[in-house]
Design goal:
15 helices, disordered N terminus, globular, 1% strand, mainly alpha
């Protein structure tokens, strides 16, 4: 969920040539909204009517966290691949910026959660959360304070490993070898060690590496997308439809993993070369800027909406789901905007000086 969209080409040495890939904003924005719809559906007491949308499409949105990993792998390379590789940024500058970007908002959410449920267990979990290093805990270590923050733990672990990640992507040949080895490691984990789950870095590594591969080929992807916009759109539509058809018949966990990885890579590759208004517009750009905040705080806002007991006023189940979803989305956008830009941004700016 990194907000960097300025691309420093892999070939850049001394002269920095940057280009903005605005369609990445659309991926982040729609993924964040999709996760809200999924969590509302999973938590609402009165379920909407059963159909393909509520039984297959919206539940699938839970895997948008994996899409975020692919996009994060690409985005972090945009800002730091060349600088890490050439040694033009210090560890202090790199990690300080990561902490300042993430910790203030996340820490505030943790303290709010602790205030509502003050107990010693929650206090321990708040401490773990505020280190941002809780991704080092065993995957089965459940943290209930800001439970959706598990994703942040994985992403920050990726930040911790980023210099090694740059080494693995040192050139295209090594990047493909690293990607293949990472996939074999996932397969071995499924077969021998038990399904690792998305909180395990072994499971997530190919997703981050796939984003890095897209970065290494960003010039070619962008050029193809701009020259052949309709062909790119048709191609990604075929891949997307093929995925949703295939997943109805494929029940092997590793094969499903590969299918999702291919789908999310196709979406990212399309976004790199796309200029369409669906992904690249001012609303998507705005929502992308607060996508991390939306993701982290949406369950807090949903619980507040839940207290309104709207189900006592709206008896039609489908309409109830729509209204609660819209209220949650509107509420979390307002909350994220005010806290990020009005409350925390002045503080962070002072700390950055």
């Amino acid at each position: 969920m990194c907000n960097k969209t300025l691309i420093t080409p892999p070939e850049s040495k001394n002269k920095v040539n940057r280009e903005r890939y605005g369609s990445l904003d659309g991926l982040r924005a729609y993924a964040a909204l999709g996760i809200i719809l999924m969590h509302v559906l999973a938590n609402i007491n009165v379920k909407p009517s059963e159909n393909y949308l509520t039984e297959s499409i919206i539940p699938f949105f839970t895997d948008f966290t994996l899409l975020f990993m692919v996009v994060s792998g690409f985005s972090l390379c945009c800002g730091y691949y060349t600088r890490i590789k050439e040694g033009t940024i210090t560890p202090n500058a790199f990690y300080r910026k990561r902490y300042l970007r993430i910790l203030p908002f996340f820490a505030l959410l943790c303290l709010i959660d602790l205030a509502f449920e003050p107990n010693i267990g929650s206090l321990y979990e708040v401490f773990a959360n505020m280190t941002l290093c809780f991704g080092l805990l065993p995957p089965d270590a459940e943290i209930h304070v800001i439970g959706v923050g598990w994703f942040l733990g994985v992403v920050f672990l990726f930040y911790m490993l980023f210099p090694f990640y740059v080494f693995m992507l040192g050139n295209k040949r090594r990047a493909w070898i690293s990607f293949a080895i990472a996939l074999v490691f996932v397969l071995v984990s499924f077969v021998h060690f038990g399904a690792p789950g998305r909180r395990c870095m072994v499971f997530c590594a190919p997703l981050f590496i796939a984003g890095g591969l897209a970065y290494l080929y960003s010039h070619g992807l962008a050029d193809f997308g701009r020259r052949h916009a309709w062909l790119s759109a048709i191609g990604v539509a075929v891949v997307s439809i093929g995925f949703f058809v295939a997943r109805e018949y494929v029940h092997d966990a590793f094969v499903n993993y590969l299918l999702e990885l291919a789908l999310f890579f196709a979406w990212l590759a399309y976004a790199v070369g796309s200029k369409d208004k669906v992904l690249n517009n001012c609303v998507a750009k705005y929502l992308s800027g607060i996508s991390m905040e939306i993701y982290l705080s949406h369950m807090l806002v949903y619980r507040a909406v839940e207290k309104l007991h709207i189900e006592s006023r709206i008896t039609q189940h489908d309409l109830l789901y729509i209204v609660i979803s819209l209220l949650t989305i509107a509420g979390v956008i307002c909350f994220a905007h005010v806290v990020k830009y009005k409350v925390l941004q002045p503080v962070v700016k002072r700390l950055e000086r």
